[in-house]
UniProtKB/TrEMBL annotation:
<dbReference type="Pfam" id="PF12833">
    <property type="entry name" value="HTH_18"/>
</dbReference>
<dbReference type="GO" id="GO:0043565">
    <property type="term" value="F:sequence-specific DNA binding"/>
</dbReference>
<dbReference type="GO" id="GO:0003700">
    <property type="term" value="F:DNA-binding transcription factor activity"/>
</dbReference>
<feature type="domain" description="HTH araC/xylS-type">
    <location>
        <begin position="208"/>
        <end position="306"/>
    </location>
</feature>
<protein>
    <submittedName>
        <fullName>Transcriptional regulator, AraC family</fullName>
    </submittedName>
</protein>
<keyword id="KW-0238">DNA-binding</keyword>
<keyword id="KW-0804">Transcription</keyword>
<dbReference type="InterPro" id="IPR018060">
    <property type="entry name" value="HTH_AraC"/>
</dbReference>
<dbReference type="InterPro" id="IPR018062">
    <property type="entry name" value="HTH_AraC-typ_CS"/>
</dbReference>
<keyword id="KW-0805">Transcription regulation</keyword>
<dbReference type="Pfam" id="PF06719">
    <property type="entry name" value="AraC_N"/>
</dbReference>
<dbReference type="InterPro" id="IPR009057">
    <property type="entry name" value="Homeodomain-like_sf"/>
</dbReference>
<dbReference type="InterPro" id="IPR009594">
    <property type="entry name" value="Tscrpt_reg_HTH_AraC_N"/>
</dbReference>
<dbReference type="InterPro" id="IPR020449">
    <property type="entry name" value="Tscrpt_reg_AraC-type_HTH"/>
</dbReference>
Length: 310
């Protein structure tokens, strides 16, 4: 799928009022009853800087580069456009390989009160429970790295604006956005865990099984009734459950996977567009080309020329 060009969060209001009191992880905190937005700035190279929050935290890069070391997770570069969820009371160990005064490393950390998290997960578990899992919806129980999609980026940007402005209704605005953000983050995590080709849940979760079934049959027409039968659910219940769990419809997912396969074939073969279209389950070449341009941002021919060497 097309990834939007990375646009940094607008922290101009914060920069006008913040005080620089230390060169490594200088912290400015904006607080409401249910959450705390921390904006950090580091101005010189540093290693093994430790940071711990008592609440689950969403960390998102604003500028520069960090190297993150989290328990039970291989070290990874942390860049703008990316976020990581870290459980409460877990220590992050952070390197700053490129920070300098002229190019500081900036990051935000949104710590969300456990009671607020519980309120959102309880609401979701009551209204749209996860199928085939005893734990139900959970947030902040494990480390989870993600690339921000457009909705998540927009919600984080909105929170930066709300926390840094002087508005008496700040608590109301922030709580509404936090609720949506937590739900979307959990849906993103569900997509990663259950829709991945390498998922370990295909034998125990019906939606994960259906995702694998879809990927095995991308070359042919797939009907919602057929998928609902695979999930042992009625059509309306399957469609509704899939959308509520993953934040996308089954048709959206099928098209996403077909375009991913088409992109792979364009990169690795010399097959004609008509052949690739048929192989990926599109029985109409015009529709394939239109959908590819809309979602990837260029025509299949332009994509192939850009990717393959001259």
């Amino acid at each position: 799928m097309k990834r939007e060009a990375i646009v940094s969060f607008d922290v101009s209001r914060h920069l006008k009022g913040r005080k620089l009191e230390q060169e490594v992880e200088n912290r400015t905190a904006y607080t409401i009853d249910t959450a705390e937005l921390n904006i950090y700035e580091t101005q010189h190279v540093a290693e093994k800087v430790e940071l711990t929050f008592t609440s689950p935290v969403l960390a998102s890069m604003i500028r520069g580069k960090k190297v993150m070391h989290l328990p039970g997770t291989p070290s990874f570069d942390f860049l703008p456009g990316e976020s990581v969820i870290v459980p409460g009371d877990e220590t992050m160990c952070i390197d700053f390989p490129e920070a300098q005064v002229q190019n500081p490393t900036q990051c935000l950390a949104l710590a969300i009160a456990p009671d607020k998290v519980r309120q959102v997960t309880d609401l979701l578990n009551d209204r749209t429970p996860l199928i085939d899992t005893q734990q139900g919806w959970q947030f902040g129980q494990h480390n989870f790295f993600l690339t921000n999609d457009v909705p998540i980026h927009q919600l984080i940007a909105r929170l930066v604006y709300i926390f840094t402005e002087n508005n008496r209704a700040k608590e109301v605005f922030a709580n509404l956005v936090i609720q949506e953000l937590v739900v979307r983050l959990m849906q993103t995590q569900a997509r990663t865990l259950l829709l991945s080709p390498e998922t370990a849940f295909a034998n125990v979760n019906r939606l994960a099984h259906v995702a694998q079934y879809i990927n095995k049959h991308l070359h042919r027409s797939l009907q919602i009734k057929e998928l609902a039968d695979e999930a042992c659910m009625s059509e309306p219940n399957f469609y509704r459950t899939f959308k509520q769990t993953f934040g996308m419809t089954p048709v959206d997912y099928i098209n996403q996977q077909r375009l991913a396969l088409a992109s792979q074939l364009l990169r690795t073969t010399n097959r004609s567009l008509d052949d690739i279209s048929m192989e990926c389950g599109f029985n109409n070449l015009t529709y394939f080309m239109k959908l590819f341009r809309r979602e990837i941002g260029s025509s299949p021919t332009q994509y192939r020329k850009r990717i393959l060497p001259s």
